[in-house]
Design brief:
The protein is an all-beta fold. The chain folds into two domains: 134 residues, Sandwich (Jelly Rolls), CATH 2.60.120; 114 residues, Sandwich (Jelly Rolls). Helix content is 0%, strand content 43%. The strands form four sheets. Strands 2, 4, 5, 6 and 8 form a five-stranded antiparallel beta sheet that branches. A hairpin with a 2-residue loop joins β13 and β14. 40% of the residues are buried.
């Protein structure tokens, strides 16, 4: 059963009030850290999460998300922040951005982050109406709080190779990988390649030595949704390491995230 369902029948959505979108007020324009929240007015099943930061002129601004919480519980499963660009509304794979948690009325969703430049940030989550009796407690849906594995913002100089590395804080199943070029205006993604992708020290790339996977293959506008899903179970304290090489003449920064699925040994 997919995260989007959580044992809820889609027939319930017919002719229901307050059953469309849950959103925050946008953060005040600025370059500092923000926390934005949304409060439900009825029991809902949280669906696809989207977020975007915009400059005063309307341009998209990159940034990092340090926490996403639902009813006070964090959805982050690594020791690093996650690139805000992983949740952009224009990305392919909206199914992978589904949260899949049931929450009651007057419960909050909050997002804390920092843009890379002055911006105003907001989020929206598609919602599905449910009955109060269908709201599950924390224990019943504990593994569904496994949502996103952050990959840190990492500077990559001209001609350099760097490792984006993060350690898991919970057991989960690693799913769709999304990488973000935080400086696309100055560093074309065509100048970035992936030379290694390791989970727990095990190489995930399939070819011989000398591979250079185009960075664009893992960006948000890549439509290979099924192919980018790792479907790889890990335990807490597992290390994910991605080697990024800059073959161009300009430096920049990269970041990313891996969407995850519920995981239990039971």
């Amino acid at each position: 059963m997919s995260k989007a369902e959580n044992c809820i029948s889609y027939n319930q959505r017919f002719d229901e009030a307050q059953s469309f979108l849950l959103s925050s007020a946008k953060s005040a324009p600025g370059a500092g850290a923000y926390t934005i929240t949304a409060t439900t007015q009825r029991p809902i099943l949280l669906q696809s999460f989207g977020l975007q930061s915009n400059s005063a002129g309307g341009g998209i601004v990159t940034g990092m998300i340090s926490d996403i919480k639902v009813a006070g519980q964090s959805l982050m499963v690594s020791d690093q922040d996650v690139a805000a660009g992983c949740f952009d509304y224009s990305n392919f794979g909206a199914e992978n951005r589904v949260i899949g948690l049931t929450i009651n009325n007057n419960q909050q969703v909050s997002v804390t982050g920092t843009p890379t430049a002055a911006a105003s940030t907001g989020f929206a989550i598609s919602a599905f109406p449910i009955e109060p009796s269908q709201v599950r407690n924390l224990k019943e849906q504990a593994t569904r709080y496994n949502y996103i594995f952050g990959l840190p913002q990492t500077a990559v100089g001209a001609g350099a190779t760097v490792n984006m590395q993060a350690t898991s804080t919970r057991g989960c199943v690693l799913g769709e990988v999304r990488l973000v070029n935080q400086d696309v205006a100055g560093l074309p993604s065509s100048d970035l390649v992936i030379t290694s992708f390791k989970i727990g020290g095990i190489e995930m790339l399939c070819g011989s030595t000398g591979q250079q996977v185009p960075f664009a293959a893992l960006e948000g506008n890549s439509s290979d949704v099924l192919g980018l899903a790792l479907n790889y179970p890990i335990e807490a304290n597992s290390i994910v390491s991605i080697s990024v090489q800059n073959i161009g003449a300009a430096g920049g920064t990269v970041a990313g995230g891996i969407f995850v699925s519920p995981f239990s040994r039971k």
